Structures are given as C-alpha cells and as structure tokens.
Amino acid sequence: MSFTNQLKKATLRTAFGYLEKNPEENALKLMSWVDKLAGDGPDSFPVQRAAVRQVLEDPQNNMYQLVMNILKETDSEVLKATFENFFLNANIIGWPKQEEYRKKYNCNIPWAILLDPTSACNLHCTGCWIRQQAEPDL
C-alpha cells in the first residue's frame, strides 16, 4: 500500500475514533474537515457532501436520528470494517482506479457489489431476511 493510502487509512481511523466518542458533537466537525480536504472540484462530490451536511445539521431530521442510532447501537468493529471498506477502500482509494477502468474499458464499474447470504449462514444478524426465512412460523 502506498504511503498516501496509508495516510488516508490512518486519517479515517482517527476520524472514526472521534465519531465513536461523541457522534452528535463530532459528525459536523468531521464534515468540515472533509469539505476542506475535498476542495471544490467536480470530482469532490459537492452535492453529496451538501446532502450529508444538511442531515447532520438537523437533529429533528429522521435521517439524522437514523445515522446517530447506527453510530451508537452498531458494534464498533462492524462500523470500523464498514467505514474502511465502503468509505476508504471503495471511495477514497478505489475511486481513481474505478475512473481509470471506466475509461480504459468504456463501461460502468460498480461502486459496490452486494451479496445475499445463503441459508447456510450462521451469523444471525438482526434484520437479515435469511434468519427470518429459516425460522418456522409460530
């Protein structure tokens, strides 16, 4: 892994630590940092960042409440893995590679690929449809 990507990974871990300590207080502060680091170019996702900021600025917003609930109630190791895989690997590090391949192969490269578990999965995640299908009707 390049030094730049190692630095990005360390920065994301630090940012996650701030979110983990106090999501209500630190989420907007982190968005300010993201805005400063991202710049104003078309590849800096200004519309998406503005949408996230709008949610984080309104504690009465249902999306705000959902985000805070996820940050507070989800196991911290699961959150860390999700942040690292989706935000760091798929977006920050992976985006330039995706753009390169889009141009090279003249096709769309998906941002993420979702997989459905099989009925053999034994993780018993809350809300998983496999768990609900495997349980007999009572």
Q: Can you characterise this structure?
A:
The protein has 138 residues and is mainly α. It is 68% helix and 0% strand. The chain contains six helices and no strands. It has helices spanning 3-21, 23-38, 46-56, 62-73, 76-105, 129-134. Helix 1 (3-21) packs antiparallel against helix 2 (23-38), helix 1 (3-21) packs antiparallel against helix 5 and helix 2 runs antiparallel to helix 3. The mean pLDDT is 82.
SSE blueprint and pairings:
Blueprint: H1 3-21, H2 23-38, H3 46-56, H4 62-73, H5 76-105, H6 129-134
Helix pairs in contact: 1-2, 1-5, 2-3
Quick overview:
The chain is mainly alpha-helical. The chain has helices spanning 3-21, 23-38, 46-56, 62-73, 76-105, 129-134. 68% of the residues lie in helices and 0% in strands.
Order of helices and strands: HHHHHH
Q: What is the structural class?
A: mainly alpha
| Shape category | globular
Tell me the quaternary state: single chain
Low-confidence stretches: none
C-alpha Rg, in Å?
Answer: 18 Å
Identify the notable features of this structure and list them briefly.
138 residues; mainly alpha; 6 helices
